[in-house]
Design brief:
Elements lengths: L10 E2 L5 E8 L4 H24 L7 H12 L4 H41 L17 H27 L9 H6 L3 H4 L3 H12 L3 E2 L12 E3 L4 E5 L14 E7 L6 H9 L5 E7 L4 E9 L8 H6 L2 E6 L3 E7 L5 E9 L6 H21 L3 E5 L9 H4 L3 H9 L2 H15 L3 E4 L4 H8 L13 H14 L83
Parallel strand pairs: 9-12, 12-13
Antiparallel strand pairs: 1-13, 2-8, 3-7, 4-5, 5-6, 7-8, 9-10, 10-11
Helix pairs in contact: 1-3, 2-3, 3-4, 10-13, 14-15
Length: about 550
C-alpha cells in the first residue's frame, strides 16, 4: 500500500511484576553507621571480585556454585548467594547492552556504505537516503566509516569471548573524577560518593523464613537486624552473629501490603544504601506480584478510552467514545525535564498522576504508543537533524512507560498499547483541521492523541470523504475514502443496491451492477437490446 509498513495490532499491557518501596533509616548512632560502612565495603569488594570471576561464556550451574563456594567462607552462604545473583544480573544486562551496541554500529555502517555509493547530491527516495551533499562531507563520512568498522570489530570480539565492560559505581561518576570542577565536587566528596556506590548491602528474600528474610530482617515494629559476614562477626550485638540497628524504619507507601507479607513469612528482598548528598541511610523493600490476568481488549474498548500522545515536554490526551468520536476538550499535562534526576522523576510522576486521576474519574482506559527510540536516534540515521536527535534522545519513553503501567495498575486503569506508525502524520492530516474551531486551536499533538485512540479502538484513523452532491453520483451517502492506486478492485463498479429505480427496467431485472457489460461500452452488450437507427432513404 504505497510502501507503508504493516501496523501491529493493539494489545492490553500487562501489569507490573514487582513492587519496590523505600523509606529512610532514622535514629542511627555513630556505631550503626560504622558497622554499615564496614559490612558494605567488605561485601562490595567480594562483589567486585566475583564480577571479575564471572567473565566468559561459561555460565552454567557448576560455575555459579564454584563462585558461591569461594565467597561463602568470607561472608555466609546467603550473602554469597545474593552477590552471585547480582553479578549474574549485571553481566546479563551488560550483554544486552553490548548486543544493542552491535546493532547500532551495524546500522551506522550500512547507512554510510549506502550513501557513499550514491552520487554526490543525489536525492533519496522514500525509505532510502540519498548521497551526501558535498565532496567534503563525503570524505568525512568515509573516514567515519573506518572508525565505525574498527569499533564493530572490537565489540564483536568482546561478544564472542564473553567479555563485558562494567563499572561498579557507574561510568559517569568515574569520569567525574577528572572533571571535579564541572561536577561541583571536591576530591573528598567524590571519594565518599564513589565508595558508597560500590558498597553492597542487599539480600534476597526467602519464603518461609522469619519475616521473609534471614539476612536483613525487619520486624513489624521497624527494627532492623543484619546477619554479619564471618569476617565481621566480632561486631555482633545480638545472638547468632546478628547486629541490631538502633534506628527504626517505617514504610508509608504500601505499608499494609508489606505488613501482610512479613506476617505470613513471605519473601521480601531488602537493600540498604547511603545517600551522600543528603547524608541519610535508606532501606528499599522489594517483592514480586503474582501474575494477574489482564482485561480483554474488547472490555477495555467498551466504554471508550483516552488517547495519549507522549512528547518531550507534555502529555496530550483526548477522550474518545466507543465509536472513535472525540468527546469534550483536549487535555494537556506538562512536565519539565530539567534539573537533577530526582526533580525530573518527580515531574514525570506528577504529570502521570494527574493524567490517571482524570482517566479514572471518567472510568476510561488509556491508549498509548509502544515507543522505542533505541534504533531511531542514531547519528547516521538523522544526519544533520541535531535538534530532532536531541529531542527524541531526551524523551523518557522507558521511564514514562514503566511508571505509567505501575501507577495505572494501582488505580485500576487499563492501558492499551498501539503501534506508533503514522499516528502523528495521519492525525494532523485528518483530524487537526476538522477539530479546530474559533474557540479551540487543535495542535498536532492533540490530533495525534485522537489517532492513537482510534487505533486502540480498532477504528481507521482516516476520516470518511464527504459524499458528492445530489444527483451527481449516489445521492449523498455512499462514497467513503477513495481507494489509492494499486488497490485490488479499484476500477470495479459498486455493488448493486436493490430497490426501485427511476429507469424503465423494474427492480431485480437486467444485468448485475458488477457486470462490465451493463455499462454499454464498446464491444459489450447493454442492459437491454441496443437501439439502432435505420438508414435514411435516398429517394421516395
Amino acid at each position: 500500500m504505497g510502501g507503508l509498513r504493516e501496523v501491529a495490532a493493539p494489545f492490553v499491557v500487562p501489569g507490573p511484576s514487582g513492587v519496590a518501596i523505600r523509606s529512610s533509616l532514622k535514629g542511627l548512632t555513630v556505631q550503626d553507621a560504622t558497622v554499615l560502612r564496614q559490612v558494605g565495603a567488605l561485601l562490595g569488594s567480594l562483589a567486585s571480585r566475583d564480577l571479575q570471576a564471572a567473565a566468559g561464556l561459561d555460565h552454567d550451574g557448576e560455575q555459579w556454585a564454584r563462585r558461591k563456594r569461594a565467597l561463602t567462607g568470607q561472608s555466609s552462604s546467603r550473602w554469597a548467594g545474593s552477590i552471585t545473583k547480582a553479578t549474574h544480573d549485571q553481566w546479563a544486562l551488560a550483554r544486552r547492552g553490548q548486543l544493542a551496541h552491535i546493532h547500532s554500529l551495524q546500522a551506522g555502517v550500512e547507512t554510510i556504505t549506502h550513501r557513499l555509493s550514491q552520487p554526490i547530491g543525489a536525492k533519496g527516495s522514500q525509505g532510502a537516503p540519498g548521497g551526501y551533499r558535498s565532496r567534503r562531507e563525503w570524505f568525512a563520512k568515509s573516514r567515519r566509516l573506518h572508525v565505525l568498522q574498527d569499533r564493530l570489530e572490537q565489540v564483536r570480539a568482546d561478544w564472542e569471548a564473553g567479555r563485558v565492560r562494567v563499572v561498579r559505581g557507574g561510568k559517569k561518576l568515574l569520569r567525574n573524577r577528572h572533571h571535579l570542577e564541572a561536577a561541583g565536587l571536591t576530591e573528598a566528596q567524590w571519594r565518599l560518593r564513589w565508595e558508597a556506590e560500590r558498597w553492597f548491602l542487599q539480600a534476597d528474600g526467602e519464603s518461609g523464613k522469619r519475616y521473609g528474610n534471614e539476612t536483613i530482617r525487619i520486624t513489624p515494629g521497624g527494627e532492623v537486624s543484619i546477619k554479619l559476614p564471618a569476617a565481621l562477626a566480632g561486631l555482633a550485638n545480638a545472638p547468632h552473629g546478628r547486629y541490631v540497628l538502633a534506628g527504626r524504619v517505617h514504610f508509608h507507601h504500601r505499608a499494609e501490603q508489606w505488613a501482610d507479607r512479613i506476617a505470613v513469612n513471605r519473601a521480601v528482598a531488602y537493600r540498604i544504601h547511603y545517600d551522600t548528598g543528603r547524608n541519610r541511610w535508606y532501606v528499599t523493600a522489594c517483592w514480586q506480584n503474582p501474575p494477574v490476568r489482564t482485561v480483554p481488549l474488547e472490555t477495555a474498548r467498551a466504554g471508550g478510552l483516552a488517547g495519549v500522545d507522549m512528547n518531550a515536554d507534555h502529555l496530550a490526551a483526548w477522550r474518545l467514545d466507543e465509536h472513535g468520536n472525540p468527546v469534550g476538550e483536549p487535555r494537556r499535562f506538562d512536565y519539565r525535564l530539567t534539573g537533577s534526576a530526582q526533580h525530573r522523576d518527580a515531574q514525570v510522576r506528577h504529570a502521570l498522576i494527574r493524567l490517571l486521576h482524570w482517566t479514572a474519574r471518567h472510568d476510561l482506559a488509556l491508549a498509548i504508543e509502544d515507543l522505542d527510540f533505541t534504533a531511531d536516534k542514531t547519528r547516521e540515521k538523522h544526519g544533520r537533524r541535531k535538534r530532532f536527535r536531541k529531542l527524541i534522545s531526551g524523551m523518557p519513553t522507558a521511564r514514562l512507560r514503566a511508571r505509567l503501567v505501575s501507577m495505572a495498575a494501582e488505580l485500576g486503569v487499563t492501558v492499551v498499547a498501539v503501534d506508533p506508525a503514522y499516528t502523528s502524520r495521519w492525525g494532523a492530516q485528518h483530524w487537526q483541521k476538522p477539530l479546530t474551531t474559533k474557540a479551540r486551536k487543535t495542535t498536532r499533538h492533540d490530533a495525534a492523541a485522537v489517532a492513537i485512540g482510534r487505533r486502540a479502538l480498532g477504528c481507521p484513523i482516516r476520516r470518511r470523504t464527504a459524499p458528492p452532491p445530489n444527483d451527481r453520483s449516489d445521492r449523498v451517502g455512499h462514497r467513503t475514502v477513495q481507494a489509492v492506486s494499486g488497490s485490488p478492485g479499484r476500477e470495479g463498479p459498486r455493488p448493486r443496491i436493490p430497490g426501485p429505480r427511476t429507469r424503465s427496467v423494474p427492480p431485480g431485472c437486467g444485468a448485475k451492477a458488477g457486470d462490465q457489460c451493463a455499462h454499454n461500452r464498446s464491444g459489450h452488450t447493454a442492459e437491454h437490446e441496443p437501439w439502432h437507427q435505420d438508414s435514411l432513404p435516398l429517394s421516395l
